[in-house]
Design a protein that fits this description.
single chain, alpha+beta
């Protein structure tokens, strides 16, 4: 748990964890939304914009840990970047992608995990076309 300061900065104390996930829930005119991102807490301050791609990458990374495909320690900065880059490419390649449709999100997560071998490698050129 953390707090938000007067400037909108989220502050949380993270102790001895290889990776953390920040998950923000809210509501828009299109419905409930959850935006998230993965962080490797190796710096005292983390600045990162959360968006659709970071959310897909976060779900991909956490699901890979949960199903035993990788360990928390393996979800390092390079894997996070591979997952985020692949998620961005996946969204661009699938113009009908709907972040509010759980089936679309699940399909994107599966595609990103597969294309990157759970973040171990960057997605191959054209992996999502």
């Amino acid at each position: 748990m953390g707090t938000t300061d007067a400037d909108g900065n989220f502050v949380v104390d993270v102790q001895a964890q290889p990776v953390i996930a920040i998950i923000v829930q809210g509501m828009t005119n299109d419905g409930d939304v959850e935006i998230s991102g993965l962080y490797n807490p190796d710096q005292p301050t983390i600045e990162k914009d959360l968006d659709t791609a970071t959310s897909i990458a976060c779900t991909a990374g956490i699901s890979a840990i949960n199903d035993g495909s990788i360990t928390e320690e393996q979800l390092d900065e390079a894997r996070v970047l591979n997952l985020e880059d692949a998620a961005s490419e996946c969204i661009v390649a699938n113009t009908d992608f709907d972040f509010y449709d759980q089936l679309d999100v699940d399909a994107a997560v599966a595609a990103v995990r597969s294309a990157t071998n759970d973040g171990a490698n960057p997605a191959a050129l054209g992996a999502f076309t």
